[in-house]
Structures are given as structure tokens and as C-alpha cells.
Amino acid sequence: MMPTPGFPPHTLDPEGTPIWITDLASDDPNHILHVVHGIEPAEALERLGARTRLMRPCELLDSRPDEWTSLPCAALGVDPGSSAALLAGRVGEWTFVYDDSGFTFEDAAEALSADGTAATSVFSINGDASLTYAVDGKQVAWVDVDGLALEEDLPRMPAELRAAFEAAGTVEEEGIEPGEADSSIAMRAVCALADLPLTLSALRQVPLVVLPFG
User: Fold this and answer.
1) What phi, psi does 33 have (nearest 5°)?
2) SS3 content of the chain, % helix, strand, coil (to 5)
3) Bridge partners, residue 97, by sequence
4) How high is the pLDDT of residue 3?
């Protein structure tokens, strides 16, 4: 049972990760998803410190060439680990930036939210997961998934973030009691915040850009 009200059928993988993130990522991901309201992908990338002169339109391949290579990395034609591949696009009022190697972490949400709202979801190769929510250049909330207790923590969240976590719901995994946080909840919450319950086929319809970072 997967009570995740913000996600239609077939938009999550069996562990509860948004399926488009799973399809983009390598098999053992160390990745970040940023979302920011009201700005274009080029500006979001610039705020993250990327060299936007390297930005180019991206057409994702049909499949990953191997287990170590993300789809954005394959689109760039770079070796995994040599640099991060940043994939960005805009869906409605929100722009997302997917970082396949976790290079764009420090103060990212704050930088993205200089004049609005942004959030960053981190999932490390060790399974550590967190979410940062920022407004007008300041961190408003930080959620450590390991320490998240929904019944206690939801009422203390800003209203917009609380709604995102409610839409993200919970996924029952082996070893996790019903109602407790799961490892993918931060990625779901960020996608719910930015209205991104996508599939990879839907993502392919979005104008995308990609560039190397680091």
C-alpha cells in the first residue's frame, strides 16, 4: 500500500521515489533535486554557480548505457564521476535542476530563493536524505528524513511545505513502521511542492538543457 495522494498511478517506483528521478539516475545514486518558483532554467543554473555558457539543449537517450551513467551524463557524453551533469527544465511556474552527482549542495536553496521560494532534496550514496526549504534567500526549514516524525513535525512546517509532505504521503518499506518516514519522502515532497508528478515520457516533452558542473 502506498498512500501518496499527490502522485497518480505509475509515477512512483516500488520504493516510492518519483519514477522520472529513478529513470534519470544511475543505479546507486548520489543526487540532488532543486526546484525554484518563477525563474527560468538558465537563471537557476547561474544561481547555483554553473557556467551557463556551457548550457546546451538536451535530448535524453532512450536508455542509460550502463549502471553507472545517468541519462543526463550520457546526454553530455562525459565519463561518470568526472563532473556532475545538471539537467534543468521548467514545468509551469516551477523550474527544476537535477544534479546527478550531488555537487550543488551548499546553500543552494538559499541562492535559488533570492526573490521567491525554492527547495532542495538531497539523497546521498549512503542513503542519507534531507530537504531544505528557503524563501527570499533564507532557510525556513530543514528536514532530516532519518529524524522525521510526521505527526509531530508536520504542524510545525510552513503551510506550503506541510502541504507538500501531505501530498508526498508515506510508503511502507520493509523495516519501516506505518506512518514513519521513508527514504524517498524528501524527493516526493519536493516534486509535490513543484507539481512534478512526472514520468520520463512526460519529461521528454519539456524543453530541457544540460551542462557539466565541477
Assistant:
1) -120, 125
2) 30, 25, 45
3) 34, 88
4) 82
